[in-house]
Design goal:
The chain has one domain (3-141): Jelly Rolls, CATH 2.60.120. The protein is 12% helix and 40% strand. The protein has three helices and twelve strands. It holds the Pfam family FdtA.
Length: 146
């Protein structure tokens, strides 16, 4: 069931750009979801800056994929795949990060006005979350076998 997640890598994640149009009343950013995302959207939520020095996320999903957009302000997303790490700053409302299943993520270093929008491929399911980092590393490095 989770075989694909065991083999995803950071390089499978990518930044997506969205067209921004000046309407004369201000910029308008639109997302043609079927053209941008490799998954149908089944859930959406947003988060606001919490405590500046506390990271959000700190988990991987077995099946859920996400698109994260900084619709206001900025924050960093730390991606880990059991072999490498990458930090991506999101600070443009017309750009988002597609995170594949099986990738550990933490969201940190929020600006005071940060708001993040997250589009998900699956509804919330607590069984889809891997929150134990050491167990996650063993699982990824073992090709999904623990």
């Amino acid at each position: 069931m989770f075989e694909r997640a065991a083999y995803t890598r950071i390089d499978d994640c990518r930044l997506a750009q969205f067209p921004e149009t000046e309407t004369g009343k201000g910029p308008l950013v639109s997302l043609e979801l079927e053209e941008v995302l490799p998954f149908p959207v089944r859930r959406m939520y947003y988060f606001k800056r919490g405590q500046v020095d506390i990271a959000r996320g700190n988990h991987a999903n077995f099946e859920n994929q996400q698109l994260i957009i900084a619709i206001q302000g900025s924050f960093e997303v730390v991606l880990l795949d059991g072999h490498s790490e990458k930090v991506i700053e999101l600070n443009k409302a017309n750009e988002g990060l597609i995170i594949r299943e099986g990738i550990w993520r933490a969201v940190q270093h929020f600006s005071a006005d940060a708001i993040g929008l997250v589009l998900c491929s699956h509804p919330y399911d607590p069984q889809d979350y891997w929150g134990d980092f050491q167990g996650y590393l063993a699982w990824k490095r073992g090709g999904g076998m623990v």
